[in-house]
């Protein structure tokens, strides 16, 4: 395998699509190189010396930190939650969303000690409330987080919000925004010198320094 190939970890779904579209527009890769419908997980663009891996979004920093990928595209929320030891090269400017505390509309929106908060982001949630001097218990959920306060599993939730439509449809409302998140380009800290030069060229093409 060509040692100069740059491997990029992409989260499955919209961020992967937007990343490839951006890379094509900047001449970094060729159109149609990644086909999510094929069920393949690894795609090679030999012409441009690029390889792409489709992984779960929470796993992107792990693949990059441990060297299975040289670069990764992932939301700032994931970078903060995983606290992975990686370079954060640049903000790519797409995939905008907010990480918010939310609760039942017209319910008790005041924070208190020993609240139960359902979330995919237990580390950030505990840190956020700890800075306010509030201890909370977190329950980690991976889907349908909006259901938790409705059925009494939690007092509040912390989750990503884009338009807020899902919250409103389930009788919830945003109480506070914890983080504004966009897609970030992250990198492994132990890349060879040869790959560093290629990565610098990719960053330059993307408009970074």
From TrEMBL:
The keyword GTP-binding does not apply. It catalyses: 1-(5-phospho-beta-D-ribosyl)-ATP + diphosphate = 5-phospho-alpha-D-ribose 1-diphosphate + ATP. InterPro entries: ATP_PRibTrfase_cat, ATP_PRibTrfase_CS, ATP_PRibTrfase_HisG, ATP_PRibTrfase_HisG_short. Its EC number is 2.4.2.17. It is an enzyme of class 2 (transferase). PROSITE patterns: ATP_P_PHORIBOSYLTR. Pathway: Amino-acid biosynthesis; L-histidine biosynthesis; L-histidine from 5-phospho-alpha-D-ribose 1-diphosphate: step 1/9. Residues 56-206 form the ATP phosphoribosyltransferase catalytic domain. GO terms for molecular function: ATP binding; ATP phosphoribosyltransferase activity. Keywords: Amino-acid biosynthesis, ATP-binding, Cytoplasm, Glycosyltransferase, Histidine biosynthesis, Nucleotide-binding, Transferase. One of its GO terms (cellular component) is cytoplasm. NCBIfam families: hisG. Heteromultimer composed of HisG and HisZ subunits. Lacks the C-terminal regulatory region which is replaced by HisZ. Catalyzes the condensation of ATP and 5-phosphoribose 1-diphosphate to form N'-(5'-phosphoribosyl)-ATP (PR-ATP). Has a crucial role in the pathway because the rate of histidine biosynthesis seems to be controlled primarily by regulation of HisG enzymatic activity. This is ATP phosphoribosyltransferase. It comes from Geovibrio thiophilus. The lineage of its organism: Bacteria, Pseudomonadati, Deferribacterota, Deferribacteres, Deferribacterales.
């Amino acid at each position: 395998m060509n040692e100069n190939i740059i491997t990029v970890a992409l989260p499955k779904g919209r961020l992967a699509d937007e990343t490839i579209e951006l890379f094509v527009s900047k001449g970094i890769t060729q159109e149609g190189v990644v086909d999510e419908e094929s069920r393949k997980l690894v795609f090679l663009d030999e012409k441009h010396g690029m390889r792409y891996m489709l992984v779960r979004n929470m796993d992107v920093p792990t693949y990059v930190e441990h060297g299975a990928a040289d670069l990764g595209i992932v939301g700032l929320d994931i970078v903060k939650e995983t606290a992975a030891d990686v370079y954060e090269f640049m903000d790519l400017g797409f995939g905008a969303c907010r990480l918010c505390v939310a609760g039942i509309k017209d319910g008790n929106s005041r924070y208190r000690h020993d609240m139960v908060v359902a979330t995919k982001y237990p580390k950030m949630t505990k840190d956020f409330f700890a800075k306010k001097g509030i201890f909370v218990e977190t329950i980690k959920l991976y889907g349908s987080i909006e259901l938790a306060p409705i059925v009494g599993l939690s007092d509040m939730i912390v989750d990503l919000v884009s338009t807020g439509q899902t919250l409103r449809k389930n009788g919830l409302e945003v109480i506070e925004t914890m983080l504004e998140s966009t897609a970030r380009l992250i990198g492994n800290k132990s890349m060879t010198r040869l790959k560093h030069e290629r990565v610098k060229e990719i960053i330059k093409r993307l408009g970074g320094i």
